[in-house]
Design brief:
single chain, about 250 residues, alpha/beta, TIM Barrel, eight-stranded parallel barrel, 12 helices, 9 strands, globular
Length: about 250
């Protein structure tokens, strides 16, 4: 894999990856340019989330709705990029950035894990826009996300992009049947997604399934680690972590 992906493959393993940037409750908010600048300055990798605006721009934001981070009503997907870019994040001077702005800021300073927030049944538009942007980015990056069909789309269209499948225990997930939920908890969707590595929630680490894939040469990245003790409990079964709330 190193021969195929070069520096990006090495950076899967070190340094640790700052979840939504290096944000703090009283400082730069999550998924803000300030949080990404702080992560770069501290020498960490960066994980971020991407949705499509109503006019087809890739916006860096986690939630489907705007309320928690901006106080505005409604869904991100129902507003234009210009409208979204004018919204303040948590009352700060930071606003919702585009993926293009974010990667321009980061440059080659950090490995970027781009999580595609692709809704079920909507594979294609977000993936295409993201790829238009990353095709011109010179720094190391990878695509991650939970939707195995999004990964399959990337595997078919752009097999040269490094991809990591997100997963967790899927307890209480409403958009999946119980049969699907159990199948995904056993990582059976890996055969659909065809990823190069796994990004697994702490609620399914360690697990025999994850250990088996790792033994076959598929790295495992743990998320979201919020205390050093959590990492100590799983690090023998993982290759890196996505963290927040402490100095990793």
């Amino acid at each position: 894999m190193k021969d195929r992906f070069g520096e990006a493959w090495d950076l899967l393993f070190h340094p640790p990856v700052a979840h939504r940037g290096l944000w703090t409750p009283d400082g730069a908010p999550e998924n803000s340019l300030g949080a990404f600048q702080a992560a770069c300055a501290a020498g960490y990798g960066i994980e971020l989330d991407v949705h499509l605006s109503s006019d087809g721009e890739a916006m860096v934001f986690h939630d489907e709705t705007l309320t928690r981070m901006t106080g505005a009503e409604g869904r991100l997907r129902d507003r234009t990029a210009a409208d979204l870019g004018a919204l303040s994040l948590k009352g700060t001077d930071e606003t919702i950035p585009t993926l293009l702005e974010t990667l321009a800021l980061i440059g080659h300073r950090a490995m970027v894990h781009i999580e595609l927030k692709t809704a079920w049944g909507e594979v294609g538009p977000l993936e295409r826009r993201v790829h238009e942007i990353i095709a011109d980015h010179a720094g190391p990056l990878c695509i991650i996300g939970f939707n195995p069909y999004s990964h399959a789309w990337y595997a078919d269209h752009y097999p040269g992009v490094l991809r990591g499948l997100d997963s967790f225990s899927y307890r209480g997930v409403k958009h999946l049947s119980e049969e699907q939920r159990q199948s995904y908890a056993r990582l059976e969707q890996v055969s659909i997604a065809r990823p190069h590595f796994l990004a697994l929630g702490l609620d399914m680490l360690p697990s025999p399934e994850a250990d088996a894939y790792r033994a076959q040469g598929m790295p495992v990245v743990a998320w979201t680690v919020r205390q050093p003790q959590q990492w100590d409990a799983v690090k023998d079964h993982c290759d890196n972590m996505i963290f927040e709330g402490f100095a990793a």
